[in-house]
Amino acid sequence: QSVLTQPPSVSGAPGQRVTISCTGSSSNIGAGYDVHWYQQLPGTAPKLLIYGNSNRPSGVPDRFSGSKSGTSASLAITGLQAEDEADYYCQSYDSSLSGLYVFGTGTKVTVL
Amino acid sequence: EVQLVESGGGLVKPGGSLRLSCAASGFTFSSYSMNWVRQAPGKGLEWVSSISSSSSYIYYADSVKGRFTISRDNAKNSLYLQMNSLRAEDTAVYYCAREPPYPGRHFDYWGQGTLVTVSS
Q: How far is A93 from chain B (nearest CA, A)?
């Protein structure tokens, strides 16, 4: 079960900037654990997009950026492109007894 | 090139068992912790289980604890998930995912997934 909360959907026109929030608690993001982001294109496996709050793996365009503050994190996509239409998930470590890693509820990005 | 290829999914009746496998290539498998993550149809991602590089540390989500067993064979570059007492709510695509070294705690490569359907 997801313990990181994301908006179900965000949308924007090509070229615009959109942001996705990820809200956690004192046992995960608020405890200082890093936040990571994944992109899942329709019918495919998730792909690592941002790790360690704000780092991009090789090959990920610099249109994608991440940040973290307090018990929340954000993913920003600038210069939105049609190929960015996908589901996005945040993820962190959780120190509670119920598990090790937690994912966000997921956000569908629609390019208008 | 890092590759993770899952297999073993299929249709199983409630209460039944299934063993998933994940064949790894393109990296030194024995140096990485590995994980299973699942995704129910039309739903989000759920972490299932984690195993350290030498199998010394193993963790499970509460939802599968006592029913699923993760294991690995470093000589065969393979990860496994033994699933017993399967329930309808275990129906999902199961992905194996590599966890990079410290500080890690995320998943840098994923397999294509294998579908497990639990239904009578």
A: 6
- The residue among B42, B38, B89, B96 whose CA lies nearest residue A108 is B42
* Pairwise CA distance, residues B4 & A47, whole Å: 13
Token pair, residue A16, equals 């615009």
Q: B103 with A52: CB under 8 angstroms?
A: yes
Measured CA to CA, the distance from residue B109 to residue A70 in angstroms comes to 28
Instruction: Nearest chain A residue to B95 by CA: give it.
Output: A45
Q: What is the pLDDT of residues A62-87, one digit of tens each?
A: 999 999 999 999 999 999 999 999 99
- Encoded tokens for B78: 């393979």
Nearest CA in chain B to A53: B106
Amino acid at B83: M
Q: pLDDT tens digit string along B22-62? A: 999 999 999 999 999 999 999 999 999 999 999 999 999 99
Check B112 against A45: CB less than 8 A apart: yes
